[in-house]
Design goal:
The chain is α+β, with helices and mostly antiparallel strands. Helix content is about 45%, strand content about 20%. It is built from four helices and six strands. The strands form two sheets. The chain has a four-stranded mixed sheet with strand order 1-3-4-5. A two-stranded antiparallel ribbon has the order 2-6. Strand 3 and strand 4 form a beta hairpin. The longest helix is centred in the C-terminal third of the chain and has 26 residues. The protein is elongated and about 50 Å long.
Length: about 160
């Protein structure tokens, strides 16, 4: 039995980011994005209410300052596109990027205790963003917190200015 055959149909098998709406990040940010995509595809729980099931492909983009989650079946046939306003995320994203800048600077010069304190704040904001995303997706997409957290990481990737 292949590993994929033992997995649930309520899952993502592919995640892509829209190249035209992505701001390129520094090497640390690009690495974080690649890890999030890899982790998301490897382990996730993703389903659509009132849909027979996946597996699914997810394409994430920005469209007129809104988040577009384009969901397709495994063969690439369109199922649904959810458009979410990013306005509720503005404060979290602003604070998240500020603390990320502090974190990346601290990695190079600060003590381990300082780095850990900044990273705890960064993780807290990341969790806050994931929780907000979970609330915004309620009734549209069913996913667990780890999946939502990794999708939030990819949403931040769409805003990196590099």
């Amino acid at each position: 039995m292949h590993r994929a055959e033992s997995r649930s149909h309520n899952r993502l098998v592919s995640v892509t980011l829209d190249e035209t709406s992505i701001g390129r990040g520094n090497s640390d940010q690009e690495h974080e994005r690649a890890i999030a995509i890899y982790d998301l595809v490897e382990e996730n729980s993703f389903g659509l209410p009132n849909h027979a099931g996946g597996p699914y492909q997810l394409h994430i983009a920005l469209h007129e300052s809104k988040l577009a989650l384009n969901i397709r079946d495994e063969a690439g046939e369109p199922i649904v596109v959810h458009i979410l306003s990013l306005t509720p995320f503005r404060r979290i994203l602003k604070d998240y990027f500020m603390i990320c800048e502090s974190y990346y600077a601290a990695i190079r010069t600060a003590s381990p205790a300082q780095i850990e304190a900044i990273d705890m704040g960064r993780r807290g904001l990341h969790n806050e963003g994931a929780q907000l995303l979970a609330e915004r997706l309620r009734g549209k997409i069913d996913c667990d917190f780890d999946t939502t957290r990794r999708i939030f990481t990819l949403i931040t990737a769409l805003h990196w200015k590099g």
